[in-house]
Amino acid sequence: MPTRSSDLITLGLRIRHYRSERGFTLDQLGERVGLAGSQLSLIENGRREPKLSTLQALATALDVQVIDLLNTEAPNTRAALEIELARAQKNPLYGALGLPQVKVTKGMPLAAIESLLGLHRELARRASEAIATPEEARRANTELRERMRDQDNYMPDIEQLAEDRVRASGHVFGALTHREVSVMAEQLGFSLIYVNDLPGSTRSVTDLVNRRIYLPPASIPGGHGLRSMALQAMGHRLLGHERPNSYAEFLWQRLQINYFAAACLMPQDASVAFLSHAKRERELSVEDFRDAFGVTHEAAALRLTNLATSHLDMPLHFLRVTGDGALQKGYENDGLPLPADVTGSIEGQFVCKQWSARSAFTHTNRTTEFYQYTDTPVGTFWSATQTGAMDGGEFSISVGVPFAQARWFRGRETTQRAVSRCPDESCCRRPASDMSSRWAGKAWPSARLHAHVLSPLPSGTFPGVDDTEVYEFLEAHAAE
């Protein structure tokens, strides 16, 4: 049975097509299948989903097979245009204009439908050419997060590609070495060049003419090691990426190369073997996973989200939170209620003060993970949190699971427990009533404004990258 609105529209148009071919009116066909003509009209207009029994009755009355009605192809050219127009009018891009939707009637000229579609197509084209605003970035990021949640953050094709490339480099066990990464580049026909003058807007630059990958001479802040940066640059070539046509495509490519790099640094077979053994011993730990493969704590935590559900049958969540409680990155397929704005975006939203992602900052011993159970409105979760600091301030990395899964992890015996009522604002976002009565109207704080909130991403061939700097850099090094 169809479930999406676009499927219902196609279904309705196919029913109308066959009804018109048979010469039935709405009332005549409705009488044959036990429906009022008005009810059948709702089905034909894609506004009501018919029961299977109704579909079978319609197919019999129209002398077709049910599969003919469920075919996802438009029955004719006009119907295809009507479907495209219906989808365009449901697009948020059009909805943002505040204009009414045009109802396509049987008597509407084909030229009118084509004209309306032309306007919608031009609107979409101009929007895609605009620079990436923070709103566009947040929307694209939200869609990508939901897409990865649907597939449990797992990409088997890239897993296999990484396994093949790592094996071809001669790697056998342990952490992937810089030498092996260089061999991988050589096998692609590239050489790795370390320079001090990379453009400030880039992490690496690939010269496709001279087959060079330029990298900084040392790891940049934030744990992005040279191995990872080199692997990401190679990932673009191995995955056949072309210049992104939209900011959403740019984010998708970035996610793919990050995934490829992580799958090379922590190969699937070795990682699953390590994690499966730790689960059997009830000693799962991000710390141990990190140390076994020589990566950062964040990289190990993210890699765990790739493999835990698909190979350990375990839902989980991941959080990276700033010292003031703002969510920078988040993933969940275990039902943890991540804070989100009205658009569904989680970036920049503040997590509950009772969660370990924030309470861990108050503990003095930060060399090891902090463990905590948290009771939430949707159930109890266990989490392990590691804190750290960068030039931009403190941050925490958390990995957690539902209560029933905690038994597989080191730290499950913790007595640290908290209660979170968020998103109920009385939990931690609304001041106590007695405090409010004392201070309401008597305080005037000066808010700190984050510059990126108002700044659009620089335009260019690749979002955020200064084309002029990159081309000048390549010119300077091409003759070397």
Describe, in short, the structure shown.
With 480 residues, this protein is an alpha+beta fold.
What descriptive keywords fit this protein?
DNA-binding, 434 Repressor (Amino-terminal Domain), alpha+beta, 6-stranded mixed β-sheet, 480 residues, DNA binding, Lambda_DNA-bd_dom_sf, DNA-binding transcription factor activity, XRE family transcriptional regulator, 3-stranded mixed β-sheet
Detail the topology: elements first, then pairings.
Blueprint: H1 5-22, H2 26-33, H3 37-44, H4 52-62, H5 66-70, H6 77-90, H7 92-95, H8 110-129, H9 134-150, H10 156-168, H11 178-187, E1 191-194, E2 205-207, E3 212-215, H12 226-238, H13 247-265, H14 268-280, H15 286-293, H16 297-312, E4 317-322, E5 327-332, H17 356-359, E6 370-376, E7 379-390, E8 393-402, E9 417-419, H18 433-439, H19 467-478
Parallel strand pairs: 1-3, 6-9
Antiparallel strand pairs: 2-3, 4-5, 4-8, 6-7, 7-8
